[in-house]
Q: What sequence folds into this?
């Protein structure tokens, strides 16, 4: 799941916001009609420079729709300084503005391609144009659906505009509290401007929430029951000024700024923000009596069509729910076959693989105390394993990035509805580190054999590592991501850790890695089961626990996430399996000339791409290596 979204967003959250709304379009090109926008660069320009200009223009248009993205990437300075005080427009009008911009800009790409411009540009630029066309085409198909949020080249596509893990009530406090820079008085004013825009963003969501309800699109009752206490906690905090004011006061004080910053922020939080949160809560409460316990999209109006799109957007394939379901069961059986002998070696000989993994999870040797000291121990343990993988990465890559990462606990209000962890790269200039967000509401979510693998996935050489390569690419490529590639790469990063020998003297850690892959195979089964095969929430949880020995506490939130981000969970294993398949093709074609470092660099330096473009990049590498 590819991320972080200076804002407090992880890369993945930033990418999500690119599709959740639009600021007013500041660029003149965006106000023209599509035919005018399709005009190419001046005739004196070379095809290469024209293509680069086109990509830059498209990036600026998209960035104007997501000022939070400019902060996350560390480029809300200079001509973009005004973006630091803005938020995306999450209203219906904002959605339409995004769709209109995408339609115009993809027309420009197609006009360039049809004019033969791609014949005279380099491979990387051709790839960038293909990426824009794929991301924008899929997003426009999503905008054509009657409800939901569309992540433009991102991962957080959802039918529900506000729910337990979706909404400005989560995103904006995290943005303001974590990465919103406050170094000068202008920065502090930008913080206040964003806080002042918060109420309008909330109301825009509430308007769309009502509209979806009018169409009969109501979230499952168990998700509403989870979301309401979370929004109420945000409201309680806002009514007292709380963190929204305290964060600014602390940042201003640390920057040596005089002024009544905290008091000004508190007035906004207590007034318009609290009132808007109350309206959002009231709408969810009004919808709750109409909600059912049906977990999947099959029971929602137009749900089958929405799920087909969500699955396509997540996997960048045309696989059907039945095909994805069958793939999950097949890969799960293969992985359990690899786990079985390790479990026997560790003394776990009786019962299914799932039964034995459940027994292993109870082994006190691999647990952390459920105390603050235990939480601190988890963070230190993660750092130890990140140090181990750093030492091995020169064996896997020709060129290395820094791997600038900060391990942080998730905000307390978010923890109940959040997964066990997530992460992504920081700003382009490196001033904002990447984040590995860890859910520490209870240490029971984590074990000593599962955390090393989690660190490889979320941080190095997973999301943070891959994101730093992306940050070296043209701006539009830094902004666009594909779930199958992002999450497929993160699983492949887990595999690299094993192949580089990190678990040779810690075989239970290898078991944790294999369980992680099996967990993603289970996701293929459960996500399609919920949304296409009419599974209940309980069936989804039970499948994980019984088949894979997964932690019941963790998978309850996981299954809830699949209900709200329909299809997203399927990108992981589909992407991983395709990367491994492409590696096998390269090895077979190149024989003794194959080098792991070369292959890995082709994949990671080729950037975040749909899977068909990944195949083209690998084929070009093989052809070049053959001479």
A:
């Amino acid at each position: 799941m590819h991320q972080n979204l200076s804002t407090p967003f992880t890369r993945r959250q930033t990418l999500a916001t690119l599709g959740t709304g639009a600021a007013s379009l500041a660029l003149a090109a965006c106000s023209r009609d599509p035919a005018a926008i399709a005009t190419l660069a001046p005739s004196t320009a070379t095809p290469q420079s024209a293509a680069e200009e086109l990509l830059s223009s498209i990036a600026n248009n998209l960035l104007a729709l997501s000022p939070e993205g400019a902060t996350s990437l560390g480029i809300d300075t200079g001509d973009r300084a005004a973006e630091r005080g803005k938020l995306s427009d999450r209203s219906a009008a904002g959605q339409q503005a995004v769709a209109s911009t995408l339609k115009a800009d993809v027309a420009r790409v197609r006009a360039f391609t049809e004019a033969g411009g791609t014949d005279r540009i380099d491979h990387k630029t051709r790839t960038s144009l293909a990426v824009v066309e794929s991301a924008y085409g899929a997003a426009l198909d999503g905008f054509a659906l009657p409800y939901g949020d569309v992540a433009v080249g991102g991962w957080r596509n959802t039918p529900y505009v506000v729910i337990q893990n979706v909404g400005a009530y989560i995103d904006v406090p995290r943005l303001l509290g974590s990465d919103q820079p406050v170094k000068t008085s202008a920065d502090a004013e930008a913080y206040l401007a964003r806080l002042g825009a918060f109420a309008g963003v909330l109301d825009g969501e509430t308007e769309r929430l009502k509209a979806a309800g009018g169409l009969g699109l109501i979230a499952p009752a168990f998700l509403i029951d989870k979301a309401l206490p979370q929004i109420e906690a945000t409201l309680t905090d806002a009514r007292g000024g709380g963190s929204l004011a305290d964060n600014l006061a602390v940042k201003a004080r640390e920057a040596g700024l005089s002024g009544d910053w905290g008091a000004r922020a508190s007035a906004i939080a207590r007034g318009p923000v609290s009132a808007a949160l109350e309206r959002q809560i009231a709408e969810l409460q009004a919808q709750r009596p109409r909600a059912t316990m049906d977990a999947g999209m099959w029971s929602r109006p137009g749900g089958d069509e929405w799920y087909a799109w969500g699955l396509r957007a997540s996997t960048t394939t045309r696989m059907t729910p039945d095909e994805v379901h069958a793939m999950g069961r097949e890969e799960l059986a293969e992985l359990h076959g690899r786990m079985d002998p390790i479990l026997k070696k560790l003394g776990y000989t009786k019962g299914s693989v799932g039964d034995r993994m459940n027994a292993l999870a109870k082994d006190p040797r691999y647990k952390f105390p459920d105390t603050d000291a235990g939480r601190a121990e988890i963070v230190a343990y993660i750092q130890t394993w990140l140090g181990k993988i750093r030492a091995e990465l020169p064996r896997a890559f020709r060129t290395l990035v820094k791997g600038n990462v900060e391990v942080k606990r998730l905000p307390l209000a978010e923890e109940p509805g959040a997964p066990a962890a997530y992460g992504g790269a920081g700003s382009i200039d490196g001033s904002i580190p990447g984040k590995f967000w860890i859910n520490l509401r209870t240490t029971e979510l984590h074990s000593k054999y599962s955390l090393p693998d989690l660190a490889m996935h979320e941080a190095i050489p997973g999301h943070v590592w891959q994101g730093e390569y992306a940050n070296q690419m043209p701006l539009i490529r830094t902004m666009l991501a594909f779930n199958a590639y992002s999450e497929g790469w993160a699983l492949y990063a887990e595999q690299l850790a094993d192949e580089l020998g990190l678990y040779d003297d810690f075989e239970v850690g290898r078991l944790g890695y294999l369980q992680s892959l099996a967990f993603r195979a289970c996701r293929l089964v459960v996500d399609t089961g919920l949304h296409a095969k009419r599974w209940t929430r309980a069936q989804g949880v039970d499948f994980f626990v019984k088949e894979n020995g997964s932690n019941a506490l963790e998978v309850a939130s996981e299954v809830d996430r699949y209900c709200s981000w329909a299809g997203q969970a399927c990108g992981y294993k589909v992407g991983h399996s395709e990367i491994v398949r492409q590696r096998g093709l390269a090895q077979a074609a190149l024989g003794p000339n194959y080098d792991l470092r070369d292959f890995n660099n082709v994949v990671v330096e080729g950037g975040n791409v749909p899977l068909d473009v990944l195949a083209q990049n690998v084929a070009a590498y093989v052809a070049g290596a053959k001479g």
Remarks:
- The CA atoms of residues 297 and 303 lie 5 Å apart.
- Confidence is low (pLDDT under 50) at residues 1-43.
- The two ends are 36 Å apart (CA to CA).
